[in-house]
Amino acid sequence: MKNIIIIAAAAENNALGKDNQLLWHLPDDFKRFKTITTGHTIIMGRKTFESFPKPLPNRFHIIITRDRSYTTPYEQCAIVHSLQEAYERAAQEETVYVIGGGEIYSQAMADANLLEITRVHASYEADAFFPEIDPGQWELLREERHPADERHVVPFTYRTYSRRQKSR
């Protein structure tokens, strides 16, 4: 596996969600997420998986849970019990996407080489948060701003970060 990419939408205060629900509705961000992740393996925690009505189409899901008795009837899903086990399960993949939640993001930050972040320009009360992005570790490669409009009540910015190379 060459690329471990974290993809997330996080508010200005790093809020991700509350009660296993997103805090905003951004159709263009959903479309971007689908475009980026379709055809790839996605790694997520159990609660993130359970927030979907069913598995996302055209993606292989690796679900991390501490619950050793957890199962899913879906063929396009695998159950593992650690992030390391998720990486081993996806070892043949060129690129995997880590899609949440907060605890999985925190664990994966040390392994990721790219971040695809949608920064939602508001702050929210939440119970799941994205980890801080350390500018000493991450370089902003590009950003694309989106104002609020009739479909998006809050402005947001797509930001792509690359892990900084360690100097010798």
Automatic annotation (TrEMBL):
This molecule's function is given as: Key enzyme in folate metabolism. Catalyzes an essential reaction for de novo glycine and purine synthesis, and for DNA precursor synthesis.
Provide the transmembrane region boundaries.
none
Q: This chain belongs to which protein, by name? A: Dihydrofolate reductase
PROSITE patterns of this UniProt entry? DHFR_2
- According to the UniProt entry, where is the signal peptide? none
Carries keyword NADP?
yes
The reaction(s) this protein catalyses: (6S)-5,6,7,8-tetrahydrofolate + NADP(+) = 7,8-dihydrofolate + NADPH + H(+)
Protein EC? 1.5.1.3
- Any Pfam family the entry gives: DHFR_1
EC class of this enzyme? oxidoreductase
Outline the extent of the DHFR domain: 3-163
Q: What is the lineage of its organism?
A: Bacteria, Pseudomonadati, Bacteroidota, Flavobacteriia, Flavobacteriales
Could you tell me which pathway this protein works in?
Cofactor biosynthesis; tetrahydrofolate biosynthesis; 5,6,7,8-tetrahydrofolate from 7,8-dihydrofolate: step 1/1
Q: Which UniProt keywords apply?
A: NADP, One-carbon metabolism, Oxidoreductase
Q: Which InterPro entries match?
A: DHFR, DHFR-like_dom_sf, DHFR_dom
The record's similarity note reads: Belongs to the dihydrofolate reductase family.
